[in-house]
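Case study B.
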Amino acid sequence: MSETTRALRSDAERTVRTILEAAERVLSKNPAASMEQIAEAAGVARTTVHRRFASREALVDAMAAWANQRFAEAIDAAHPETAPPLVALYQATVNVLRVKIDWGFAMSRMLSDDPEAARVHAEVDARCERLFSRAREAGVLRADVDPLWARRVYYALCHEAAQTRDGEPDALAARLIDTLLRGVGTGQGLA
Amino acid sequence: MSETTRALRSDAERTVRTILEAAERVLSKNPAASMEQIAEAAGVARTTVHRRFASREALVDAMAAWANQRFAEAIDAAHPETAPPLVALYQATVNVLRVKIDWGFAMSRMLSDDPEAARVHAEVDARCERLFSRAREAGVLRADVDPLWARRVYYALCHEAAQTRDGEPDALAARLIDTLLRGVGTGQGLA
DNA sequence: AGAACTTGCAACAGTGATGATGCAAGTTCT
DNA sequence: AGAACTTGCATCATCACTGTTGCAAGTTCT
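Model:
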């Protein structure tokens, strides 16, 4: 669609990508890292970063926009509105985990007070709500669990699985959904 | 034991407490907040903060020490080594949630690279491991779930429940453990 | 009341990050 | 080869935050 999905053309665009990826690496380890550290990780001079991004805020915004784009694509590809609930849930989880592993910092910023980020997050949450609602009607999800809490649990598990670096996204997603649906207990519950 | 558990005596000690609590409030909303903002929230001059805490690092260390103290007390009070696994798990969850709601920032810092904080966290994790192991032997936890993953899920749920501000810790803990053990699915699982 | 202590205020120096600019050298495209 | 563009380097101004100190005013305790 836009320039972000087009094949890279000039050195300038390649440099932008390099900086974005370096910024993600550095900021995910230390959110307070300086522009100097980001530039160093990208293998460019600090002035180059400032030429491409007017300010630190502009850089972080660009990271969030890039990550949001891939995030939306990951969800779309799972056809959450039409595919069988469990299939869509699994596919969306795999896709999102792939993005979240590479763009954890940029995506975590979606929870901040940025208006645009909040809008995107609200939209994704609404789609997740519809998917969970369909799953409940299909008898996959318990009806006695607060829908909001169920989603929050799902998000928390996604976050946790993305931190875990061992294993393929497929295996991580399978374990995640198994835990989400069955928990870690034997079934007798709290009595 | 030490001066932290003793009744407050002078204005100075009261001021220290006020600053610690204000710092928790401010830093939990914005980890990069300045000393000025913390002082303002505490209702004191910035110089007073610097008189009580030699540096910003010293302040954060004091917050972590205070939170760790209450954290350890919360776990001890649940008798995780001797009480029946489910009882201990529930009681520890309630106690920890109370602390985590009030000292979320200070406790989240335990995951940083501070050596002392890492030591405390490792010790707590070890006690949790023993408790989960007992729960498994008692038939409460599934034997086919990776123990480390089970603990990570539990930590993630605790974190999530602590964010949720609605409801008493008792109810939050009950829902948390129900989800941990049974999940949010109806039981048929993935296949 | 007097001593000891604590606080607020104002002022200061030091430090590190941010952002801008001019210039020389290198690259890519025509 | 020449034009357009991009980069690295050195430099500069600015700014916010940190941490310190002296002094006056207020308090708590005896």
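DSSP finds nine helices and no strands in chain B. The remaining cases will be described in the next quarterly update.
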